[in-house]
């Protein structure tokens, strides 16, 4: 036990002596949390559109007004030259062209039908989908409103209507930041855990001090504990800073228990560090270790449901997430913080994390030898 | 010039002898493209939804059948009461519950209107939004059909939507250009910065600097192998995206390669610049990761549209080379755009590349004196 | 007769089809300064790694401090000191922090550790440098510090792997004075070196060629039996037969 304390003291001395590392450990995560949380959003901001209005009627103006008044759409160009407008779309100056046909108003006032054309720049498919659904719902509203008018005017047979009432639970304003912050926190904590502790062991190997330690009575368990604990503590501190920022800076609701989050985070960090440890046992240089760690990190993050929903992946990719620790912890974080889930809902995933952690630690300890060859 | 050729040959040999790193460099782009090309997508398929049908009549059954038939949904549960909703959401598998009010069919027939409540798990706002709008479309469709039965065809506005450039809204079309940018950044910028810094750390740089080689010879010799490697990577990605993912290529191939080379040069110049300021490999790696790769992933428009970001970040995104490269590649591949449309973005990349080349040459010269 | 502290019999290590150390047999007594010579690639470092428990032998027998290298290498580690070519101090720690760390690792603590480290700093003359980082110290200082640290726990044996590479003769001489001091305290010193003048300082010398021990005696004995005036000439005569080149 005393040996472990000496190891820990040494590690902390080294970490805090390296002035270049301190900002990377404590400042970078905060900046990343701020920047990434704001950047990672699909929210529709003002969409520039071009209008080709062949009708030039009160109704067509009313519709355009209605679109603009939502704040999501802004008219950039107005012309009868449809080809010129297409060119604007190609240049990327506008994302949407609305073509209102001749006789638009006439059709709406006399109960006939009329074709309104939308041309959407679909290079970015997700934005295009949003533009479509927003415009559609505005136009539908407009349609019902006008049809309602003529129904009463000409006392036509009533049109059947389904009133769609939507309720968004947990995040009524559909605020993206609320959703992203817990996930990005997971990524930051994972980076600290994976990159720093793994790298640290490879560094001792590169500079040769590991050989010196291997002829001392330090057991490999003591050595590993000495390597894991400092970055575990740093990871937890980073998490606490991040959670504080999330709660008071980003106003994320903490519906679930903070204690639950911390316990699970502690387990998760051990697992991630065990991965770093494992990588360190199969590499000789920091460069190699860095590459492998980075590769796994990118795969884990992009396939972990942080940015794109796991539900939209093909089945085989969804199956792959069953061995993706980042995916589990992101899900747990969101469930506990945003939905107030408790042990009953997450214990299965936590059990899997614990099993992974034990497995990886076992393999790494087995692979780490105090003797060579 | 002779000593320079010798130096370049040495650099090539050193890199191409290390098979393990080489495999990573060539294999990683392939794995990433295949994995992400198939897996990262925004279109919703098989989202789990539940139905709480308080009416259980002919009409609701018909609507539920339609929900079930949709590719977007997987109807995985029938609830009996409101109390179950919260528990299902907390367990985390159900994304939406569609609630039909009691006596739904009757009301719709007699009073001409009835209520459907759509409750979404909005922890993922994007998913909630999409699921909601799909549900709305299905309901609307059904009502229109009903109305058509009663009356003489459709009335009012028919919205005809044309998805220009990407009619099926395939995410992979969007991601391939982004992936090219990320991989080129990784190979060109990260690898060069590390390899030159390593040379410095080992003390070899001084030996090279006192040799007859000029500083720009040294830099050129260091980056040439990575330039070749990067071009090979671009070709690989292009071929894979064409034949595995059927990503369209509408523009000019020559222009595409010219622009790619320009971006590679920009990335290499960034790598060289980082190596001229960093003192050891670890610093070079962290700076490359935090300063180049994360912004390339998140601020360039690769995953999240730049137009959705808050204004300060939109301003910052202008100094990210990948942002301009993405506009260029998407323009060439998906829109078939030519240089007349892309000259502005091209010019910006040229300026960034020149700036960093000049800066790093200056840095290295100072070192020599 | 004094006790044997290192005993080997036909100790062998094979890497693939390459026999790095080929059936070496030796018997080293307590308090001896034993010089372990050989050209580059002769197998010195491999042999030393087996004795310190860093490497498991392929065959043969060996015991260090009475413990078997095959089965009791962890027990051996408590009773030996080791200083490698790279004298693995932490460059980003101060001399004091290095001393306290390794001292702690070897089970010293509290008052004893404090007293010992103060003593070491004083005897090394490092009082002024106590708060500067080891990385900034001259090579000679680092070597002395590394040696002092390797015997901080009063081990029975200390293994020195080319401890004096790269420094001037005066600094080397000072270093050997410290070796003698340790030997006077009863510590057995097992040292590999390139410098033939250093071989003359040893009680006994062995010369390794191509993995085998070709000669082992006191410096005087060796010179007499090879009929030369210096150990260097003995070494050159033997090393000329070597088939393995530099690694």
Please provide a written account of the structure:
Chain A has 373 residues and is of the alpha/beta class. Chain A has helices at 2-17, 21-39, 58-69, 82-91, 104-110, 125-153, 176-207, 209-214, 220-249, 258-282, 286-302, 315-320, 325-339, 343-367, and strands at 47-53, 73-78, 96-100, 113-121, 161-169. Chain A has 2 domains: 2-40 and 173-367, no CATH class; 47-153, abc type-2 transporter like domain (abc type-2 transporter like fold, 3-Layer(aba) Sandwich), CATH 3.40.1710.10. Chain A has 14 helices and 5 strands. In chain A, strand 1 (47-53), helix 3 (58-69) and strand 2 (73-78) form a beta-alpha-beta unit. Chain A is elongated. The mean pLDDT of chain A is 84. By secondary structure, chain B is of the alpha/beta class. Chain B has 2 domains: 7-40 and 170-368, no CATH class; 47-150, abc type-2 transporter like fold. Chain B has helices at 2-17, 19-39, 58-69, 83-91, 104-110, 125-150, 171-201, 204-210, 215-243, 253-277, 281-298, 311-317, 321-335, 339-368; strands at 47-53, 73-79, 96-100, 113-121, 156-164. In chain B, helix 2 (19-39) runs parallel beside helix 9. Chain B is elongated. The two termini of chain B are 22 Å apart. By secondary structure, chain C is α/β, with parallel strands linked by helices. Chain C has a single domain, classed as Rossmann fold (3-Layer(aba) Sandwich), CATH 3.40.50. In chain C, helix 3 (95-105) crosses helix 4 (110-124). The model of chain C has no long low-confidence stretch (mean pLDDT 86). Chains in contact: A-B, A-C. Chains A and B meet through helix 2, helix 4, helix 5, strand 4 and helix 6 of A and helix 2, helix 4, strand 4, helix 6 and strand 5 of B. Strand 4 of chain A pairs parallel with strand 5 (156-164) of chain B, so a sheet runs across the interface.
- What structural class is derived from the secondary structure elements of chain B? alpha/beta
Count the beta strands of chain A.
5
**Total helical segments of chain A:** 14
Subunit arrangement of the protein: heterotrimer
What general outline of chain B do the C-alpha atoms trace?
A: elongated
Strand order of the largest sheet of chain A: 2-1-3-4
Round the Cα radius of gyration of chain B to an integer and report it. 28 Å
- The whole-number mean of residue pLDDT values of chain B reads 82
